[in-house]
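Review form for a predicted model. The reviewer records the input and the model, then writes brief findings.
Reviewer: anonymous (R2)
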Amino acid sequence: MKKKISMIIKEDKAYYFGTGIKHIYRFITHNPLYMRGKYIITCRKLGYYQSTSGLFSKICVLYLQRKKNVLGEKLHIELGTNGVGAHAIGKIKICDDVQISSLSLVNKDITEKGLYGGIPVKLIK
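Model under review:
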């Protein structure tokens, strides 16, 4: 499991952060793609540590939940926590100012602002 999540995070970093000059440019300019990447990678790490046990995992969960909430607030993204929140599958893109209802399944890109819900998600309002 750890190798698989490491590989996924490595792919996410390459996509969202870029490499070389692109990475430096996105970091300095606070590019929205860079910020979303930080959020998605934090969510992936949080999911991994929530599925493991031990004191270190619990400490990581507390730290990553806080980091996810802070990044989500900056990006206006709320996915909730595992169990009552929405679940995203695959490499999806979610635009800013989107609300997703509890227990929803996000399996496609969301390009319009609004409230989404259902399995799979549909625009509600």
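Findings: The two ends are 38 Å apart (CA to CA).
Further findings: The beta strands are 77-78, 87-88, 98-100, 105-106, 114-117, 122-123.
Recommendation: see findings above.
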